[in-house]
Design brief:
Layout (H helix, E strand, L loop, with lengths): L2 E2 L4 E2 L1 E4 L7 E3 L5 E7 L15 E13 L2 E12 L4 E9 L4 E10 L2 E3 L2 E3 L1 H15 L12 E5 L8 E11 L1 E3 L2 E6 L11 E11 L4 E5 L6 E6 L2 E11 L5 E7 L4 E8 L7 E9 L12 E7 L7 H15 L6 E7 L3 E3 L5 E2 L2 H12 L9 H10 L8 E7 L10 H11 L5 E7 L5 H10 L3 E5 L5 H12 L2 E12 L11 E5 L6 E2 L4 E7 L3 E11 L2 E11 L10 H21 L3 H14 L20 H14 L4 H15 L25 H8 L3 H7 E4 L2 E6 L2 E4 L4 H5 L2 E4 L3 H9 L2 H4 L8 E5 L2 E6 L5
Helix pairs in contact: 2-3, 2-7, 4-5, 5-6, 8-9, 8-11, 9-10, 11-12
Length: 761
């Protein structure tokens, strides 16, 4: 079974010993056609032996200089069979790529390649697709090919293949768009051992926003003119093509807006990016107040308390000279480092470190008393105030009712402090922590028993340690004024409460819009007691020309689903919200613990009882405030609420319960507890481009197809002339929706198509 990469692909076609049509192995990056080199067989003739190989590594390196990308893709593959291979390699290339060089390295030797014409490329693709009955290459129809030959590859031998090309990147609304062909094969059961991606951006203008909607890329900005992105994936089956955007702006804060509106009769979707310059020239980090609240109850004994002490020492050492702080440690009793806030200096830091060294575990858990004490210390509304709260257990003394604990904390917070909660292990009341984080405009972080507390706490503090702008607000001012009585032009934007803007961090704000056209976007916030404002002119699309910004809609859907689950969790079941949850899950293929039943082949997507199932499941699961299940539910919810990347397409399973995109998290472990088995979700739900497909009655169904449209569907047989003509007419747009080894029902351009397998298949 062959698979593709969203730009490049690899096929191995090996003629059998008998001379019959070869079977095909799975892989990526290049297309390999070849023959098994053998001596004349000895009678009796053995059964055909397919070509066997594995992808050892794929390395993608891109350098972008002022909108020109230079890309190098290298693949190392190994002949794992018992027969020698001699192969012809075909390289599909990005449509707008200019080829600098194609290099095939075999035993240190470079071999030349040949660029094929589009007509010849299509003929070859059609031949391969027909012969192998695999639609994966269709999306490359009409594009150019490079061709070269490989010397015989002995059993066990490795070969390295490299391709280099340059590309002028598109720029839209101030954002440069980099699209790298890193996605794999769509059906392969063979993973890539190692996939490494490296992107370097060099810009003559200051870089402000850098964003990947497809992957959780580790992005570093050493200065305002350079950015580096790295991603490493191990034993990966189907990574998506990588997309990265970057914007260049002058000034303290750079902002970019991306909009997507496929239907002008419906609300559109927007993504606002805002990021400060790396070197603060006109503004300095705002002095802040931090109170650390640390659980030292008996359950923290051993490694937990040791890690907590080391984390506290790290945090105290990272405080700035104009900051104020305190430490509250609690078990049955509540103890403060000092009765009141302390200014940061050598003496106070040294004394605080001594206090931390004296923390030992023992006693019960007085959460209510600790929070009331900590919040009561905060008195200065002009400074940003933060509470970092760590616990590993349930409240066992003092006030133990979670609703009342939250109410008391709200009353005690007189300065609008933000609270960041750390739940360590499965014994925490995760719903209480989420309630506290929501009430106090922070976030919850959940740490598994085997995870390092110190790493998790220090990672978060490194992000929030240097606030640049606080009390953020965003305003959209349209060229055509909004008339009194008109609906609000901007709705359902997430996060609901804007976080502070920190040095080196980026605001990612998604929402919906009803009014299109030119608009002035203004971000305001406080810096050192002064109100600052930053504006830029842009536009919201009336109708999007293509799906290139379709990820904005999916990103909004992820966050909206997270908000719905949060509402159900904290306020109880609401039928309207459950209906919306099911509707969004179907439309976008987002499998949550409460809608995982949609992956069942026997479930009718249009059935009303879907919402009843979701309501019952949500009521049951969200009632579990503690334990492993409660822990997992809220960790999943938090991921959805903070989602910053979505699959670019192609991967089986798409958004599954506990994981989405390529976040690098541990979705499988969470999914098992949450009730969505990967063995159920992955084969029956797929997200490709802007569409979600569900496998029902052995037919892959586009979630947007109605019963009436299905009746009127145009029937087309796979691998027929009509099939290839349709794919060629729509280029890659249609082809990616046909990449199923089986029948598919899909809506496209106002028509419904039913693509059926050839007779007897």
């Amino acid at each position: 079974m062959q698979r593709t990469l969203g730009g490049l692909s690899l096929i191995v076609l090996a003629a059998a010993i008998t001379g019959s049509t070869a079977q095909q192995a799975a892989a990526q990056v290049i297309v390999v056609e070849g023959d098994v080199i053998v001596r004349p067989p000895v009678r009796p003739i053995p059964r055909p032996i397919p070509a066997r190989y594995r992808i050892h590594s794929v390395d993608v390196n891109a350098t972008v200089r002022d909108q020109i990308a230079s890309v190098q893709i290298a693949q190392v593959f190994q002949n794992t069979g018992s027969r020698t291979l001699e192969a012809r390699l075909l390289f599909p290339l990005p449509e707008d790529a200019a080829i600098d060089r194609l290099t095939l390295i075999v035993d240190g030797k470079e071999l030349p390649g040949r660029l094929m014409k589009k007509a010849e490329a299509r003929r070859i693709y059609e031949s391969i697709v027909r012969r192998q009955q695999d639609p994966a290459l269709l999306e490359y129809m009409g594009q150019g090919l490079f061709q070269t030959r490989v010397f015989p590859i002995p059993p066990g031998a490795r070969r390295r293949v490299e391709i280099r090309y340059s590309q002028l990147l598109k720029k839209d609304n101030g954002l440069v768009d980099l699209h790298l062909p890193t996605g794999t094969v769509k059906h392969s059961h063979r993973p890539i051992d190692t996939l490494n991606i490296s992107v370097r951006i060099d810009s003559s203008s200051p870089i402000k926003t850098v964003f990947s909607p497809s992957h959780d890329v580790d992005i570093k900005r050493p200065d305002d003119h350079h950015a580096h992105g790295k991603l490493t994936l191990k034993n990966v089956f189907s990574p998506d093509d990588l997309r990265m955007f970057y914007g260049t702006k002058d000034g303290l804060v750079g902002m970019n807006l991306v909009s997507y509106r496929p239907d002008p009769k419906q609300d559109g979707y927007f993504l606002l990016l805002a990021s400060p310059e790396v070197k603060l020239k006109k503004a300095k980090a705002v002095p802040k107040t931090v109170v650390f609240v640390i659980d030292r109850s008996g359950s923290m004994n051993g490694k937990k308390i040791e890690q907590a002490r080391e984390a506290l020492k790290y945090l105290v050492g990272r405080l700035g000279p104009r900051d104020t702080f305190n430490i509250v440690a609690y078990d049955t009793q509540v103890e403060s480092f000092r009765p009141e806030l302390q200014r940061v200096n050598d003496r106070s830091q040294k004394a605080a470190l001594g206090f931390v060294d004296g923390l030992f575990a023992g006693g019960s858990t007085n959460i209510a008393g600790a929070l009331t004490t900590a919040l009561g210390m905060l008195v200065d509304k002009k400074r940003p105030n933060y509470v970092l709260f760590l616990t590993d257990g349930l409240p066992t003394v003092g006030e133990r009712n979670e609703v009342q604990i939250a109410a008391n904390a709200r009353k005690a917070n007189r300065v609008g402090a933000r609270m960041y909660s750390f739940g360590v292990g499965f014994d925490v009341n995760s719903r209480l922590l989420d309630r506290l984080s929501r009430d106090h405009r922070g976030q919850s972080v959940y740490v598994r028993p085997n995870e390092d507390i110190e790493v998790q706490i220090s990672k978060l503090y490194d992000r929030i340690g240097a606030p640049l702008l606080t009390k953020l607000a965003v305003n959209f001012e349209f060229d055509k004024a909004v008339r009194a009585g008109d609906p609000q032009p901007i709705t359902r934007a997430y996060p609901r409460e804007l976080t502070d803007l920190f040095r080196g961090e980026q605001l990612i704000w998604v929402g919906r819009y009803r009014k299109s056209g030119r608009v002035k976007v203004t971000l305001t916030g406080e810096n050192g007691g002064d109100r600052r404002s930053f504006s830029f002119a842009t536009s919201l699309a009336d109708r999007s020309r293509d799906e290139s910004h379709g990820f904005v809609e999916k990103l909004w859907a992820l966050r909206r689903i997270g908000e719905i689950i949060d509402e159900l969790d904290l306020n109880g079941t609401n039928q309207e919200l459950v209906d919306e949850l099911v509707r969004l899950s179907i439309a976008h293929g987002v499998m949550t613990p409460y809608t995982s039943f949609l992956a069942d082949e026997d479930v009718n997507l249009a059935a009303r009882d879907n919402t009843n199932r979701a309501r019952v499941t949500a009521t049951r699961k969200l009632a579990q405030a503690s334990g492993e299940s409660g822990f997992v539910q809220r960790r999943i919810k938090g991921r959805l609420q903070k989602a910053s990347s979505v699959p670019a397409g192609g991967g089986g399973g798409g958004f599954a319960a506990g994981g989405f995109g390529n976040s690098g998290s541990d979705p499988t472990a969470d999914r098992a507890v949450a009730g969505g088995s990967p063995h159920v979700v992955r084969p029956t739900v797929r997200n490709i481009g802007q569409k979600s497909f569900f496998l029902k009655e052995r037919l892959w169904r586009d979630s947007t197809v109605t019963a009436e449209q299905e009746k009127r569907a145009i029937r087309i047989t796979q691998y027929s002339r009509q099939y290839f003509d349709l794919a060629a007419a729509h280029r890659g747009t249609l082809a990616k929706y046909l990449a199923f080894n089986g029948p598919v029902l899909v809506n496209l351009d106002g028509k419904t198509y039913r693509i059926e397998s050839p007779a007897g298949k």
